[in-house]
Amino acid sequence: MGEEALEGGAGEGRDGLNVVLGARGGIGGAVVRELVGQGRRVRAVTRLGDAGVSETPLPPASYEDMACDLTDAARLRRAVARAAVVYHCARPPYTRWWTEFEPLNRGISEAVAAVGAKLVYADSLAMYEPGSSPMTEESPATATTKKGALRARLAAELLEQHASGRLRVVVARSADYFGPHGVNSALGRRFFTDLLAGRKTQWFKALDQPHSLSYLPDLARAFVVLGTSAEADGQVWHTPSCAPVTGRELIAAAAGAAGVEPRPALLKESTVTFFGIFVPTFREYPELAYQWEAPFVSDAGKFQRAFGPFAVTPLDEALRATVDWYRKAG
What we know:
- The chain is an alpha/beta fold.
- The protein has helices at 3-8, 26-37, 73-79, 97-115, 146-163, 189-196, 216-227, 247-258, 269-278, 285-288, 290-293, 301-307, 315-329, and strands spanning 17-21, 41-46, 63-67, 83-88, 118-123, 168-173, 176-178, 201-203, 213-215, 236-238, 264-266.
- The chain contains 13 helices and 11 strands.
- It has a 7-stranded parallel sheet, with helices on both faces. A two-stranded parallel sheet has the order 7-9. Strands 8-11 form a two-stranded parallel sheet.
- Helix 2 (26-37) links the parallel strand 1 and strand 2.
């Protein structure tokens, strides 16, 4: 253990320091707001040192922003110094996963191991094979897509470090998310701005296949349960999500929350191809299309059995809060 670990002090209780890497993103920002709401000590780490959560009253003694390029090993070590728990919610842009994600993960794991903190890793469901629905933690992580294989490898490397005793790790896997501040998800800015403007609201591949979705405040609350529970260590956990919903059902419910007429539509392949010329992220869509053309359902029963009943926010309530946020955000 490094000097920072010896200086650390607080452990995982309410007084321990919680460091959130990638605190400007949808998941990282939600985790910051949940930790602050629980009165815990938080260091929010972003590239520019502004996590964008100033709308929340932040007690000066319990919260700090910090700027850090996560590829700078010395700076990263200072960012996680004295941490009890580090929430790894950072990721490179989709188009740079192949060259940057593995070095990023290894650098973060080395820094967290050096200070003796626990690492909670924000993962997705991409590593599961098409047709695995409902997906549990026991489902084979054998997806043959590039993204799925990479995600499976990254999680496996972290769990191997836990097994070796080098690093305490929890892998938290969540469904596609939506909610306030969740602008960069599949159900983010484009989905809700089109809905509010009365335009066609586009869905992916099939309007009538069930799909699991995570509401960001619920996801963040589950992450903190995992971060503060020793029982969670060394395991993969699916975080609780909304009841599976089809695209048609979701658009109707969101339109009801917004007070507009639902106008469901499918995202056309030609649209994806056209925008892919100008927007690199669109080029990545075809590889993930299987998640939307058949049931894609996450089972979080293991979490519920281990930690007791977890009250997921009712979908209508979650959608009202999300719609209100987009209206105010403009």
